[in-house]
Structure to design on (234 residues):
C-alpha cells in the first residue's frame, strides 16, 4: 500500500519527537544503541506506507497543554492525516484528567481531556474530513532509577491517577470524536518484562523497540486507507 500523497502531521512527546535524531539518553539499558539515529514512528510509517509529505511537531517533555498551543497555530485545511501521541508526560506531571464534555458544550476546562478536546475541535473545524489517529501512552517502569527523578510503574499513582487512566481517557476521546485509537498501552506488546530489552531506561524505545511496537499503529492506518470491498450475496 502506497500513501505517498497523504499529507501527515505528527504531534506528541519525546517518543514521537526522537525520530531522525541521535539517541542521547542516560541509558540504563542498551547503551550500545546510543549515538544511533532513531528510526521512530514517522520513519517506519514512511517505509511501510510510502508516506512522504510529513511534518513532525512533537517536542520532548511536552504534554497536551503545550502541544495544544502548537496545534491551535496550525492550518489543517490541506492535511489528510493527523497522528497524536500524548499522555505519559501528563501523567508524570499529575495533570487532572477531567471528563468528556457534552456534545453542545464548546467550552473545555483545563484538564487533560478538556485541553485535548480543544485541540480536536480546532483540527476538525479546519478540516472536517481529516483523519485523526490517537495513540495511548506505552507502558513505563522507572522504579530502578536513582536520584531526584520521577519513579513510576504500572501501579504508581500521581495526583490520584495511574498511567492507564490517561490511556482510558484517550480511548474515551477517540469514541467522542469517532476517531480510531492505536492502543499502545494494551496492544503494543511492550510490558514490564520486556522494557529492559526494548527501551533505554524503561520509557524511550530503541530502534528495535520501535519496530516491535509499530504494528498497532500501522494496523490502524492500514484499516483507514484499505480499499473497502463489499460482497453482495443473494
Amino acid at each position: 500500500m502506497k500513501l505517498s500523497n497523504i499529507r501527515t502531521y505528527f504531534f506528541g512527546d519525546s517518543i514521537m519527537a526522537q525520530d531522525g535524531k541521535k539517541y542521547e539518553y542516560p541509558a540504563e539499558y542498551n547503551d550500545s544503541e546510543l549515538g544511533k539515529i532513531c528510526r521512530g514512528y514517522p520513519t517506519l510509517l514512511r517505509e511501510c506506507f510510502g508516506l512522504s509529505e510529513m511534518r513532525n511537531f512533537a517536542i520532548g517533555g511536552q504534554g497536551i497543554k503545550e502541544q495544544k498551543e502548537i496545534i491551535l497555530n496550525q492550518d489543517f485545511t490541506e492535511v489528510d492525516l493527523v497522528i497524536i501521541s500524548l499522555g505519559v508526560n501528563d501523567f508524570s506531571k499529575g495533570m487532572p484528567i477531567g471528563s468528556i464534555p457534552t456534545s453542545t458544550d464548546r467550552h473545555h476546562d483545563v484538564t487533560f481531556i478538556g485541553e485535548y478536546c480543544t485541540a480536536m475541535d480546532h483540527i476538525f473545524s479546519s478540516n472536517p474530513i481529516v483523519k485523526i489517529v490517537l495513540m495511548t501512552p506505552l507502558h513505563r517502569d522507572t522504579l530502578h532509577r536513582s536520584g531526584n527523578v520521577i519513579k513510576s510503574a504500572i501501579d504508581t499513582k500521581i495526583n490520584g491517577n495511574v498511567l492507564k487512566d490517561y490511556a482510558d481517557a484517550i480511548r474515551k476521546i477517540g469514541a467522542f470524536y469517532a476517531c480510531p485509537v492505536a492502543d499502545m498501552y494494551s496492544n503494543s506488546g511492550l510490558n514490564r518484562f520486556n522494557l529492559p530489552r526494548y527501551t533505554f531506561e524503561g520509557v524511550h524505545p530503541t530502534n528495535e523497540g520501535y519496530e516491535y511496537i509499530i504494528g498497532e499503529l500501522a494496523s490502524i492506518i492500514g484499516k483507514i486507507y484499505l480499499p473497502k470491498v463489499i460482497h453482495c450475496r443473494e
